[in-house]
């Protein structure tokens, strides 16, 4: 059912360059989280720290009951087996065909027979839609196929945690949409804890259960999707709505004169756009870790922007949800879990403070 990762006060620098500091967040077991941030803010460094490839200067990374930065080589090796990782560059071996690339972790880390390996590799290749391409070399396939091959390779050891660095970079919008669907379907099937780094705003808005944003060497905010999509915090708002008005400039930070000019022009960040419904698995079943639409907003007394939770077919997912839950036996998803029920009594006042709550 996936393993929770709890990051506490994590700081990383290279020489005198601080990449980020005092990062705290919890990746809930089995849920999909997305990490956003301008280029160069240290998203890839964060992923590499989570698998123990880079050592933080300070802080804790709890993977279950093991604190990664303090493990011996041997313990670290064992803990890494919980992870499947797709790095930003895909990192397929150019001289190996796709089958051998995907089989590689099994041949390295297990004593499985070739027959077992074949069964597992073919199963994962089918999951990511690569049947028939077993004998192709990485140089002979498209960018989208490389990403999917990398994903299949990250899945062969049945990871409890899946880290994926920009699965959608370099893909066209249609392929990105398919990949997003694949990620949601995979989560429904394997139930692992997912962390996805992306620059794609549509992915960030529709795929995850949680969103985090890195900016100016800090984790500006991390929390449920609905919390960030309804946030008025300027950086969060600008980033998640892909707007020019706000604190983020072309070279990451706008300077004072740019911000003053904007203020003089009365640049208005505008109204928050509707919150889209979350992408469902393609078989229509609710993921075990999925939260009911609107639940976080209701629990915090926040009105969603008009038009929220309505899909392109005009269906309102807040209305559809009880029907879906009933159709699936009434005890599915985070819908059934404790803590998801809005608290009784009057809702708390106003939006949560910027920067929190870090779960
Ligand atoms: N091994 C390393 N040694 C020194 N500096 C590094 C190392 N790895 C990354 N950096 C620096 O850390 C910073 C963050 O890099 P990182 O690759 O994590 O950014 P990112 O947020 O993933 O960017 P992008 O969105 O472009 O992929 C950069 O300034 C980079 O040069
Ligand atoms: Mg990166």
What does this entry look like structurally?
The chain is of the alpha/beta class. It has a domain of 229 residues: P-loop containing nucleotide triphosphate hydrolases (Rossmann fold, 3-Layer(aba) Sandwich), CATH 3.40.50.300. Helix content is 32%, strand content 18%. It has twelve helices and twelve strands. The chain has a six-stranded mixed β-sheet, with helices on both faces. The chain has a four-stranded antiparallel β-sheet with strand order 2-1-4-5, with no helix packed on it. A two-stranded antiparallel sheet has the order 11-12. Helix 3 packs across helix 4, helix 3 packs parallel to helix 5 and helix 4 packs across helix 5. Bound molecules: adenosine-5'-triphosphate and magnesium ion (MG). The site of adenosine-5'-triphosphate has 11 residues, from helix 1. Keywords: ATP-binding, Nucleotide-binding, Transport. Pfam families: ABC_tran. This is ABC transporter related protein.
Distinct small molecules bound, one entry per kind: adenosine-5'-triphosphate, magnesium ion
User: What's the total count of β strands?
Assistant: 12
Can you tell me the CATH superfamily of the domain at 5-233?
P-loop containing nucleotide triphosphate hydrolases
> Helical percent range?
25-40%
Question: How are helices and strands ordered from N to C?
Answer: EEEHEEHEHHHEHEHEEHHEEHHH
Structural class: alpha/beta
Question: At the third CATH level, what is the topology name of the domain at 5-233?
Answer: Rossmann fold
Largest sheet: 6 strands, mixed
Number of helices: 12
The CATH architecture of the domain at 5-233 can be named as: 3-Layer(aba) Sandwich
From the N-terminal CA to the C-terminal CA, the straight-line distance is: 19 Å
Unreliable spans:
335-359
The general outline is globular
In terms of quaternary structure, the protein is single chain
What is the overall pLDDT average?
Answer: 86
CATH class of the domain at 5-233: Alpha Beta
């Amino acid at each position: 059912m996936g393993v929770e990762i709890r990051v506490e006060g994590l700081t990383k620098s290279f020489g005198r360059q601080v990449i980020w500091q005092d990062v705290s967040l919890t990746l809930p077991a089995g849920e999909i989280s997305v990490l956003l941030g301008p280029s160069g803010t240290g998203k890839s460094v964060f992923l590499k720290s989570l698998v123990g490839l880079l050592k933080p200067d300070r802080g804790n990374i709890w993977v279950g009951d093991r604190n990664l930065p303090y493990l011996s080589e041997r313990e670290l090796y064992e803990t890494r087996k919980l992870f499947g990782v797709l790095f930003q560059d895909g990192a397929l071996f150019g001289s190996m065909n796709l089958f051998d690339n995907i089989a590689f972790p099994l041949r390295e880390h297990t004593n499985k027979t070739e027959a077992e390996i074949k069964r597992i590799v073919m199963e994962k290749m089918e999951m990511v839609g690569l049947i028939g391409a077993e004998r192709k070399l990485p140089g002979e396939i498209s960018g989208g196929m490389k990403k999917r091959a990398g994903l299949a390779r990250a899945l062969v050891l049945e990871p409890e945690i899946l880290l994926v660095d920009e699965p959608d970079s370099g893909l066209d919008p249609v392929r990105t949409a398919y990949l997003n669907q694949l990620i949601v379907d995979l989560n429904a099937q394997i139930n692992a804890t997912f962390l996805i780094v992306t620059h794609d705003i549509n992915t960030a808005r529709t795929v995850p259960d949680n969103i985090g944003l890195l900016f100016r060497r800090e984790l500006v905010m991390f929390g449920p999707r609905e919390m960030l999509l309804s946030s008025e915090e300027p950086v969060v708002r600008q980033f998640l709505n892909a707007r020019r008005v706000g604190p983020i400039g072309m070279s990451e930070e706008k300077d004072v004169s740019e911000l003053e000019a904007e203020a003089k022009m009365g640049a208005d960040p505008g109204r928050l756009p509707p919150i889209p419904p979350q992408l469902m698995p393609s078989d229509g079943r609710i993921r075990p870790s999925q939260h009911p639409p609107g639940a976080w907003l209701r629990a915090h007394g926040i009105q969603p922007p008009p038009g929220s939770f309505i899909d392109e077919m005009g269906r309102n997912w807040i209305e559809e949800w009880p029907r879906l839950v009933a159709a699936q036996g009434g005890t599915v998803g985070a819908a059934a879990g404790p803590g998801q029920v809005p608290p009784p009594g009057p809702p708390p006042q106003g939006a949560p403070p910027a920067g929190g709550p870090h779960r």
